[in-house]
Amino acid sequence: MPHSSDKAAQSSATSASSQAANPPDTDTVGNGKVPHPPVGRPVLKAEKLTKRVNSGERTLTILHELSLSVAAGESVAILGKSGAGKSTLLGLLAGLDTPSDGELTLFGQPLSRLDEDGRAALRAGRVGFVFQNFQLLPSLSALENVLLPMELSPRAGEEQAAKSWLAKVGLEERTEHLPKQLSGGEQQRVAIARAFVTDPELVFADEPTGNLDPDTGAQIIELLFTLNREAGTTLILVTHDHALARRCDRCLQLDQGRLLPFMPDTDEGGGQ
Ligand SMILES: Nc1ncnc2c1ncn2[C@@H]1O[C@H](COP(=O)(O)OP(=O)(O)O)[C@@H](O)[C@H]1O
Ligand SMILES: [Mg+2]
Question: Is this entry keyworded ATP-binding (predicted)?
Answer without folding.
Answer: yes
